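tool_log.txt
---
The assistant was asked to compare two proteins side by side. It first ran the structure predictor on the initial sequence, then on the second. Raw inputs and outputs are pasted verbatim so the downstream comparison step can read them without reformatting.
(1)
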Amino acid sequence: MTTAVHTYASDVAFSPAVKAIQARKGSREAYARSEQRGWRTEVDDNLAAFLTEANSFYFATAAADGQPYIQHRGGPKGFLKVLDKQTLAFTDYAGNQQFITQGNLSENPKAYIFVMDYAHRRRVKIWGEARIVEDDEALTTSLMPKGYRARPEQVILFKIAAWDTNCPQHIPQKFDAGDVAAALAARDQRIAELEAEVAALKGEKVGGVVP
């Protein structure tokens, strides 16, 4: 498979066909200016911090004939790890054994990571190439989240070509159930503390009856 030569990092997404449609619909000039500023090609502090908080993302691949496939990947916060400025990695857990992603990557390394933060209405798009690493126990162990109940099968390494962010428009705000439960527990504890303070000020015994 031949690798396209890109003038700008954003060319990984803005193919000639895409640019032609942008020109026809009036957005090419604005995106041409953004190309000069350039999409990012390395992990910076902001992206690293964003990924540290991520417990979910979508991973896209395509077969040699172009048939796309997208799969959800989840785990504890930070399970998608930064190995260096251009390399991400995560443990591939044993699942339904369809192996569509692995099959696609065996004939087409191009891949895409889409990370959504619903609570803060943020999203990150990452283009690149990926490969499967099997039978590297040390690497698999180093990437496996401690205490997470899943069986690691292999590792996926992702080499970043470019990444960009989106505006929050149309992103519904949603919260993880665990975060909501923690917030409610903290609220209930604070309410109990305030009720105890009020009862003490009134000379009442908490849970008792005023004599």
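(2)
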Amino acid sequence: MKKRLRWGSTLIGMTLCIATWQFSQGKGLYFQAWLAQGLLHTAWVRTQASGHQVKPWPWANTWPLARLLVPRLSVKQVVLSHTSDGMSAFALGHLDNSVLPGELGNSVLNVRYGTYFGFLKALELGDMLVLESLRSGRWHYQVSAIYIVDKTDTLLVEPSLNRRLTLVSCYLCTEEKDRRRYVVVADEVETMA
């Protein structure tokens, strides 16, 4: 019986050593991303249920505003407020000087290149996007245009008279001086009840 206990302790110790080594080799980033997604989802659900701004973690200076669904790609992403402080590494970020997601006008969302560019690049003309907004309900959008523009070209992020989502990410980002932006524009569509 005592020998089993030793082997069990040894096995647990080896497992902990391997886990520590894996995290030190950069695998901890995947764990952090997984944990962040869980916390963001919980904050979204709690914000919906309470109607109050619920931070995903205590020191965060942001909270969920909406959730974006892309049915064809099985993507569900939380949209955070005030993401200029680096929070867009974990979620889509709302550009503060645009209308809130789901409101009438052009709502601009920042898409982090390294983390979420894959889903943005996979979007095609005609794809449906569903936006669940805390304040204004559920809205359906259709991708109407995809552009690669210079970062000084602000025409696509200007106000609109219609409900519109504009998703913006840097394009390729191979150099710090890369001036190109990848922009996906989605306009509201009427849905059948």
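---
observation on (2): Residues 1-5 have pLDDT under 50 and may be disordered. DSSP finds two helices and eight strands in the chain.
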